[in-house]
């Protein structure tokens, strides 16, 4: 694995060498491609994606695209999504530099309110578009509280279960911080309701 990490780190350094820091430390941390590659290869190893048969993977909220880039290098077929109008312009630059030109524009958000017949109201949440079926669905380094609140997580899992192949699994590696408790509550519910198998929260 050390050789693979070194090889991909060297390749990535070359690809992003012209990207300039934005001045925002939160975004500029992604310029440290060596760390990003190492972390993503470790995740791939943890979920059995190194030296396995070609898998069909969906990476939700891909950001700069490090994970799909690493997975494609390992021979997997990867579909990836993020908000194409996102606040982090560096993500767009990174994906371009990494040759990831077909990012699907998708963001969990409330769409609008619908009046119900009992005159109460409910929110309609934007569902994941139909992208086919997958062996593995991933969401790495997402921040449970600020990005995905409890309702979004339920949507994420429901959407994921809809488009997973038999024996497929969801993988979330949330950033440590606010919201982990709520996320774990949601996950526990799905596991106890036997709706979810092969789940892992990576902290
Ligand atoms: C910290 S970045 C992680 C990016 C990438 N997965 C990684 O591992 O480096 C979190 C990502 O979540 C996305 N995100 C934030 N809110 C979201 C939402 N409501 N629905 C979908 N994605 C969201 C952001 O656009 C951002 O790219």
Overview of this protein structure:
The protein is α/β, with parallel strands linked by helices. The protein has one domain: Rossmann fold, CATH 3.40.50.150. Helix content is about 35%, strand content about 20%. The chain contains seven helices and eight strands. The protein has helices at about 1-15, 25-30, 35-45, 65-75, 90-95, 150-160, 180-190, and strands at about 55-60, 75-80, 105, 110-115, 120-125, 135-140, 165-175, 200. A six-stranded parallel β-sheet has the order 3-2-1-6-7-8, sandwiched between helices. A two-stranded antiparallel sheet has the order 4-5. Strand 7 (about 165-175), helix 7 (about 180-190) and strand 8 (about 200) form a beta-alpha-beta unit. Helix 1 (about 1-15) packs across helix 3 (about 35-45). The longest helix has 14 residues, at about 1-15. The chain starts with a helix and ends with a strand. Bound molecules: S-adenosylmethionine (SAM). S-adenosylmethionine (SAM) binds near residues 83 and 86.
Provide a brief overview of the structure.
With 203 residues, the protein is an alpha/beta fold. It is built from seven helices and eight strands. The chain starts with a helix and ends with a strand.
